[in-house]
Recover the amino acids of this structure.
């Protein structure tokens, strides 16, 4: 239970993690974002709140740089989606057919049709919806979304998500620091 408490309050623990582990914080948050976006079972990991807190940490801690954090987390989020897409592509129908016998081929065909029509928007906007974020690339892979199409929207979505969330934390922390001085 201790590890779950830690994970659910991770954004509050960031200054302590930075103090305890120093620049290893980059590797720690890379792994967390990668797992949240790359593994369906890790949907509960903090994504948005962690990114906002990291933006605030970048504004307040001189040793953590916003540019490095952006690049690292962009790579982490993009790679996570790629792994999740390939998991869906190679294992999606096998898992859904074997594990949940109630999933009909008709539903899988509808998913395929949906991703052909709305896949790009879904991949981008899913980044901003916590539970959907972990399932969208898996569904894209199992639904047969073309990889060339997927990768473009994956990169755009990762850039927007990481940039917006880090930016919110950075701007809010900087503004609050100026107001309270």
């Amino acid at each position: 239970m201790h590890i779950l408490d830690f994970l659910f309050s991770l954004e509050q623990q960031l200054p302590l993690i930075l103090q305890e582990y120093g620049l290893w914080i980059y590797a720690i948050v890379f792994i967390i974002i990668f797992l949240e976006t790359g593994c369906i079972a890790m949907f509960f990991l903090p994504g948005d709140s962690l990114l906002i807190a990291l933006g605030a940490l970048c504004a307040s801690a001189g040793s953590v740089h916003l540019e490095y954090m952006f690049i690292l987390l962009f790579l982490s989020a993009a790679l996570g989606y790629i792994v999740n897409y390939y998991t869906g592509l190679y294992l999606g129908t096998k898992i859904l057919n074997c594990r949940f016998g109630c999933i009909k081929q008709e539903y899988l065909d509808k998913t395929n049709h949906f991703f052909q029509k709305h896949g790009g928007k879904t991949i981008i906007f899913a980044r901003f919806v916590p539970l959907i974020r972990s399932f969208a690339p898996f569904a894209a892979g199992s639904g047969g979304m073309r990889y060339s199409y997927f990768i473009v929207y994956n990169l755009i979505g990762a850039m927007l998500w990481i940039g917006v969330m880090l930016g919110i934390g950075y701007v809010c922390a900087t503004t609050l620091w100026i107001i309270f001085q």
